[in-house]
Structure formats: structure tokens, C-alpha cells
Amino acid sequence: MPGAIYAEGLVKTFGDVRALDGVDFDVPEGTVLGLLGPNGAGKTTAVRVLTTLLRADSGRAEVAGLDVATQPNEVRRAIGLSGQFAAVDDYLTGRENLQMVGQLYQLPAREAKARAGDLLERFNLADAGDRTARTYSGGMRRRLDLAASLVVSPPVMFMDEPTTGLDPHNRQALWELIKELVAGGTTLLLTTQYLEEADHLADTIAVVDHGQVIARGTSDELKTRSGGDVIELVVHDRERIPEAQDILRRLGEGEPGLVAHTRRLTVPATGGAKLLAEVIRELDGRAIEIDDIGLRRPTLDDVFISLTGHSAEFDELNGAGNGNGGRDGGRDDGREKPPRGPDPGRPDPGSPGPGRTGEGPVRDDGREGGAA
Ligand SMILES: Nc1ncnc2c1ncn2[C@@H]1O[C@H](COP(=O)(O)OP(=O)(O)OP(=O)(O)O)[C@@H](O)[C@H]1O
Ligand SMILES: [Mg+2]
């Protein structure tokens, strides 16, 4: 029997852009699927098709056992949706917005009121609850929109980048709410660009790029697939980085990544502690001083690089499309994004990482990874 969210061969094109290029999912009831991918990967398009807001060109999808193409009204009654762009009524207060949703779902007035108060509290909007939403900051609108999607708990929920634009405190609060929701039996499809978030919340993860699912599995399975471990080290003298890189290139698996400003090098590796010892011996032998060295499990970002040849945030940081004819070029969607500088532990987009050198892995479809 198909799961609570089921899709088979979904295709959706916009002109010559294939936003969805044959997507399949099967999400068992009461579990969370994390849809992970960079800008323009097709995440929102998938959510729009599954929530009946958009018709696929071909393929089939069922939500809560209902066909999205032929039973859209029934599907809408069975789902909750929090979109990428907050949909709140500017001229109502936060509280009124939430009560209105309760009324739409035919909650008794008292219950709608209590639920609104509770959600305002949980999303740190209690003080602002009686101001019109027009006066809210971006992060507050976002929280109000999320609260609205949680007024009732439908059996299947869709959340499109729910934590984009939230500060760490509110992000944590939402994570807790999501966990409660799922513990109560809700099936959730969540899109995110935050690898850590998918790692934290999702039972299974589907990595999407160019409208296709390029990998799926639990976060552990995906991490294992990218080669076991990562050796990470910080070179003391900047001038010695190329030599250290040579050693890693020889002993590790693939092209070492470099975060230039922190002098941090990483390379996927198999061979664990024994290999680490060998790296240390070689560095020692050439008197290359290091400030730090260790072996760690790969993050999902490492996984993304090994699958696509570029970091999940590569395109965003470079302000470029993701290699599909500039399909996302210059789109300004007014979305809030916390500014993200280069981050230790993430490859420096300004350095010759796998996406730049053309030495990244070749994708399933024969295209070479990277933003070339
Ligand atoms: N209504 C539309 N008209 C034309 N092109 C569209 C439309 N909607 C989406 N696209 C294109 O389809 C592709 C997939 O877009 P989609 O919004 O699904 O990506 P996404 O993974 O949600 O990206 P983001 O992380 O930026 O939200 C992009 O190239 C986008 O420009
Ligand atoms: Mg989107």
C-alpha cells in the first residue's frame, strides 16, 4: 500500500525548464521526509503539485490515499500547508489571523481562541498578538504563518522551508513543535536547504537537484555512501597549505576541500584512525605544522558535495543559477535569508573546490557536477 504521501514519475515543465523531471516518493504514515536541495532544485514545485496548487504535466500523486489530480478538494481537507512565502492577512492582528484559520476549519469559537493564544505563546508572539500583522517584522510574519498551519493538525502536513528567516531560538521552538506533531501521527514533508535540519528532523531524506531525486535514504545511509569519514585539519602556515593538500589528495578519496580563511582542509577518507596516523606521519616527515587534526563523520553538506560536485549553498553564495541554463537567474523573491558568510566546516566557495576544478564526481545523468 502506498504511504501517506506518494508520487510516481512527476514531471512539471515551465517553458524549457524541467522543474520536476520524474520524481518519486513514498512516505510512510507518521514519518518525515526531508526534501533537500539548492535553490531552483524543484522543491517548491513538488510541494505545489502535492498540495493541488499546481497540476503536473505527467505522473501521479496521492496524498492521504487521495489522488491530487482527480480529488483535489478532498486532498485539501486532509492537509496542512505552510508555504515558502508567508500568507497572512495584513489587516488582521496575529490573534485574529489564527482565530480565522480555526473558524475556517470549523473549530468551536472557544477552542479557536484557546488554540490561537497557545500558538502565539509558543511562537513568541504573545506580546505582538494584538497588533496588525502589517506591523510585524519578516521573522514574525514567518512565525505567524507557521502558527496558522498548526491551528489544526491534519493527518498530512507540508512545510516549505519552514525555518528560513527564523532566529536560532525560534527555529528550536519550531523543531520541538514538529517533533510533537509527528509523535502524534502526522506525516510531514518538509523542504529545507539546511542540511543540519534534515539531519535532525527527517526519517528519510531525498536529495533533489535539477528536478530529480539524486539520492535518498536516512541521513546515516547518505553519510555512509559518501565514503565513511572525513579527515579535517588546520595548517599552521598558509604557505604550506598546497603541500598538505598534496598529501590529502594522495591518501584520501577525492579532491581536498579548502576553507582558505581558516586554513582548514578536509578530505573524504576510508581507513579511519590508521589513515589519520599516516597523514600525521607524512605531515611530520615534511615538518608541516598543524594546529588541529581529526577524523569526523561527514555532514550532509559533505554528502551533497560528493553527490553533486558542489555545496548545497554554492549557487546561493555565488549568486548564480545552478547549471540549468540560468533558470533561476536573478530571481528576487523577496525571501528572507540570514546572511551567510563562509563557514568553517563548509568548503570555501572562493577556493578551488570540486565544483570549480571540474574534478568533482560525475553525476548519474552524465553531467559533470559544478556550476560550470
Ligand atoms: N511559475 C513558474 N514559472 C516559471 N518557472 C518556474 C515557476 N515556478 C518555478 N519555476 C522554475 O522551476 C525551477 C524549480 O523551482 P522551485 O521553486 O521548485 O525550486 P526550489 O527548489 O523551491 O528553490 P528555492 O530553494 O529557491 O525555493 C526553477 O528553475 C524555477 O525558476
Ligand atoms: Mg522553494
UniProtKB/TrEMBL annotation:
Source taxon at top rank: Bacteria
Location of the region described as Disordered in the Swiss-Prot/TrEMBL record: 314-372
Membrane topology summary: Peripheral membrane protein
Keywords tagged on the record: Antibiotic resistance, ATP-binding, Cell membrane, Membrane, Nucleotide-binding, Translocase, Transport
EC number: 7.6.2.2
GO biological process: daunorubicin transport; doxorubicin transport; response to antibiotic
Record-level Gene Ontology MF annotations: ABC-type xenobiotic transporter activity; ATP binding; ATP hydrolysis activity
A cellular component annotation (GO) from this entry: plasma membrane
One Pfam family here: ABC_tran
ABC transporter domain: residues covered: 5-235
Membrane spanning stretches: none
Primary subcellular site in the record, as a coarse category: membrane
SMART domains: AAA
Family matches, as SUPFAM superfamilies: P-loop containing nucleoside triphosphate hydrolases (SSF52540)
PROSITE patterns noted in UniProt: ABC_TRANSPORTER_1, ABC_TRANSPORTER_2
Subcellular location: Cell membrane
Matches recorded under InterPro entries: AAA+_ATPase (IPR003593), ABC_transporter-like_ATP-bd (IPR003439), ABC_transporter-like_CS (IPR017871), ABC_transporter_ATP-binding (IPR050763), DrrA (IPR005894), P-loop_NTPase (IPR027417)
Comp. bias intervals (Basic and acidic residues): 328-346, 361-372
Similarity-based family: Belongs to the ABC transporter superfamily. Drug exporter-1 (DrugE1) (TC 3.A.1.105) family.
Protein known as: ABC-type xenobiotic transporter
Organism field: Streptomyces harbinensis
